[in-house]
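Example record for the data management plan.
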Amino acid sequence: MASTRQEIIDELKQLLEQDAAAIKEQVDHLKTQFYSTAEELSEEAQEGVNDLEEQFKELLSVYKAKRAEIAAEQAKEEADNLARKQAILDEMQAMVEGENADQVMANLQRMRELQAEWKKIGAVPAPQVQTLRKAYQQYQEQFYDLVKINIELRDLDFKKNLELKTLLCEAAERLQNNENVVEANRALQQLHDEWAEIGPVARELREDLWNRFKAASSIINKKHQAYFDSLHAKEQANLEAKQAIIEQMKAINEPLVNGEPMTAKMWEEATEKVQALQVEWRKIGFAPKKHNQSIYEAYRAECDRFFATKKEFFIELRERRKEREQRHKEYLERQKAREERQREREERMKEYAAKGGDSLRRMHERLKQEIKTAENNILFFTAKSKTANKLVDSMQAKIEELKKQLAEIEAKMED
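Corresponding structural encoding:
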């Protein structure tokens, strides 16, 4: 199945090589898919999106033109069929109204020829279908009722028609077991078309036979109506389920939009919830057709809002990490400089010790060790509370005092 707009355009081009009358459902599906396909594009690529839409509209125009041509041809054919059937009805009417004994056998044969010709004629404009059928059945019945023909011949036709209509009744009754109610209803309409084309049966059997056929039809029609009632109820339930998911998405997005503090772990948990809602959304079927597009757009907007906010958070997080890394690098450089100065002092201390300054040297070593221990300890404190801040300040003050004492010792040692 096509997933990008370009693939949809390519598939539509291939469809247009087929008979336009046979691809309506596929074209409607591609049209819905094309306009609901979400593509995240840069501003530079927007012109390409417009070009794809223009291509798609041009292909739809070609399709509509082909459909219009087919419709025009079909309308002309139906008009021709209407004229042919009306001519048959005119002839049948003349046979019914001008019947006499000398013409019975000739008219009976001609009636059968007209019936055969009628069945061969294709569709006519829909508004005239019922009127034509009613007139056709009326003239057939009047012909057999009014024409004084050989009773055996008429009874033979009645018997044949009875057999055919009985078969149609049985077929309609079997359709009641078809679990595919849409298919059963379509087949029933075909049976009704066939029923209308079959001549009459004996007068005393007509009502009972029709009631049997009508009863079987009624059961199928009720199942068909119940199916669509159920389908509409399911679509409404799907709409409510999708609205509930959108509300949950809004509940997740609302604190983010309002600037509630979030950690990376909190974002991970929120993302898992959103992805679970997306999985649930994909499991839900269609909502009522008039709501499908709007409900999807509302859902897509909430998804986009969540992931856009998440993207901003992690961009900012990466920037803060870079700043911390830079500060750490600068700290290491300062530490290296301090260590270099310390090595220089140690060299001077060694020279001083060689000259007899042993007491000051030991005091110098002790202060230096205390400063190192204090600086190492201060690294274990995190300033996330007032108590921690006080401990850090106290330790920093102690380090400064020790450094002051160390400087005094070093000054004495250098004298």
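Summary line stored alongside the record: The longest helix spans residues 289-354.
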